[in-house]
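Here is the promised in-class demo. Please do not try to memorize the tokens; focus on the logic of going from shape to residues.
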């Protein structure tokens, strides 16, 4: 039996490992399956689904069997090797930080890996996890090509002003820049705009990636010109557990007056803030929306308020606005949050079509609306697979 050539896409986080396998068919790709190992070190669980979402496998382990990310990667490796009829041709990795250098995906060798490891300081919570499967694969399958695809790369088109903080240049040279994140998601939306929303492909568009992590990106003719995230994925909108934009004086106060350590401030800003901190109930938008607790309502109101403010900021950066695209968990699934965000666009002439919004069909604005509004499900893994294939084909 001839085996199907395939690409394995990996997205390694701190407590979960997501992966997908795509079959290579000439120059195109067909998704075969998607899987994830969640609850690493707590309640490890592998679930795999086929391309239509049908369950292929569900299994759990005892905590000590999958205590950390490395053991999760090795369990995933065991599973992938057990799949009959596929031959892996390459691995595509989501890597959060491409630093100031990488504006495009790159084939990984020892030198590249060293550079990416140096960016660990810029993204200490994410980069080490992203690099772990790369290192492991280099040892067990040294000849398998590995490609790194970066969350920051899509924003390298920013102007010098957009890339800078008003800090001394030495800090900029040392890497303190407004990198922007969620770039793989924005790249996907930018790629599908000509097909889904042709009138926006060359226009001024804000993409609202609203998930557990949330940010906005300003696209001009499909290129990123601004983003609400900056040096880290903490900036901009409030998120599930992250604070979003904060006066840096608050951080100084926490340290100098409240005596908090850097580790405690990190824990506060990354894991105890955002919707979680505001509501004291949950980081999960769906849970907040279904709660009657006034604190849940307050957290949602705050989130929507900040979305409106940042939309206004990016509309100004674009010198006007032609369209808005909602994507990611909240953006794709919550008509209520979309409706509230659309209210904050009324001053720009946006008119929501309530029926289309409730159905989540791609176009959710009325024909008279001066701003086109869309819901487009994102697909970061497909972007990684495509980029991996194009580097593979380029030799
Ligand atoms: P990530 O990939 O960053 O973990 P997602 O893009 O999956 O995050 O988004 C997760 C968020 O989407 C959660 O806050 C979740 O509650 C929210 N979400 C998912 N479905 C719905 C829904 N039907 N209504 C409201 N929010 C939803």
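The designed amino acids, position by position:
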């Amino acid at each position: 039996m001839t085996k199907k050539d395939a690409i394995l896409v990996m997205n390694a986080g701190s407590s979960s490992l997501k992966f997908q396998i795509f079959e290579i068919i000439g120059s195109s790709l067909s998704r075969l399956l998607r899987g994830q190992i969640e609850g690493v070190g707590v309640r490890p669980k592998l679930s795999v689904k086929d391309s239509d979402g049908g369950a292929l496998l569900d299994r759990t382990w005892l905590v000590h069997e999958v205590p950390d990310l490395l053991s999760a990667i090795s369990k995933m490796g065991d599973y992938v090797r057990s799949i009959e009829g596929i031959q892996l041709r390459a691995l595509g990795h989501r890597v959060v930080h491409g630093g100031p250098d990488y504006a495009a995906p790159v084939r990984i060798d020892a030198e590249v890996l060293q550079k990416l490891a140096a960016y660990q300081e810029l993204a200490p919570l994410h980069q080490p996890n992203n690099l772990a499967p790369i290192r492991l694969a280099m040892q067990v399958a040294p000849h398998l090509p590995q490609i790194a695809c970066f969350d920051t790369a899509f924003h390298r088109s920013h102007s010098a002003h957009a890339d800078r903080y008003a800090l001394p240049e030495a800090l900029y040279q040392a890497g303190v820049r407004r990198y922007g994140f969620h770039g793989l998601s924005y790249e996907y939306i930018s790629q599908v705009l000509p097909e889904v929303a042709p009138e926006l492909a060359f226009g001024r568009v804000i993409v609202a990636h609203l998930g557990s992590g949330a940010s906005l990106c300003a696209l001009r003719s499909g290129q990123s010109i601004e983003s609400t995230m900056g040096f880290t994925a903490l900036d901009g909108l409030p998120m599930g557990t992250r604070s979003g934009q904060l006066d840096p004086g608050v951080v100084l106060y926490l340290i100098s007056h409240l005596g908090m350590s850097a580790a405690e401030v990190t824990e506060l800003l990354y894991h105890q803030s955002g919707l979680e901190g505001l509501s004291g109930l949950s980081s999960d938008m769906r849970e907040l929306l279904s709660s009657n607790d006034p604190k849940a309502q307050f957290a949602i109101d705050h989130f929507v308020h900040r979305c409106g403010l940042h939309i206004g900021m990016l509309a100004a950066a674009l010198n006007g606005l032609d369209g808005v695209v909602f994507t990611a968990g909240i953006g794709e699934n919550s008509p209520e949050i979309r409706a509230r965000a659309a209210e904050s666009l009324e001053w720009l002439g946006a008119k929501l079509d309530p029926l289309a919004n409730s159905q989540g069909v791609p176009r959710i604005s009325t024909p008279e609306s001066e701003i086109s509004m869309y819901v487009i499900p994102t697909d970061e893994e497909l972007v990684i697979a495509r980029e991996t294939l194009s580097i593979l084909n380029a030799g």
